[in-house]
Design a protein that fits this description.
about 15% helix; alpha+beta; four-stranded antiparallel sheet; disordered N terminus; globular; seven-stranded antiparallel sheet
Length: about 200
Amino acid sequence: MRKFLSLALASALSCGIAFGADNYTTEGKEKITRNSVNIFLEPNSPNKQKYLSGEFDKALEKMKKGYQENAKIQPKASAPLVTQVLILDVCSGKYGGCEYINDNQTETAYDHDGVPFQVNTGVVGYGGHSYDRAKFAGNEAIQLDSEGVDLDGDNIVDGFIDYWDISKPKNTNGTFEFTATSINNAAVSKSTSIYIK
């Protein structure tokens, strides 16, 4: 009997897990680990090499820190509420890469424009995917991807990193606004913004 239960548990843990109405699942995703954070990527994700090279290390640490701070006030749940949203970095052709955004930073330190022109955001809790909205200079941003992240090493998705294209319509500066809504309680949402030079 004990062997059967162990086998059943191992089988359940090895399966992909679906989350919320969007049916986000880790099934078919490639799991990579960087600095004790698991990221679940599409097999052909253009971000894979960026994670492996350490380009997103600061952003992952920022999300992990936010998760650890919020874990003290919010118990584990099957779909935890959104407790924090973060602007992780702004990437552009003009800058030549990604500018990491510090906590409480209200505007970018550098000018941005060109192709690519995108903002990467983080959600601690279960927002992500179609539950998130972003605008740049008053225009809807286009969500390129949303990747699940396991911030405590237990192979359970604790949040999401979203990638937003802000290149259209053409704007070289303005306010980027990001809002994530909890999938299990639409009354709970968090917002943040930054002025992009």
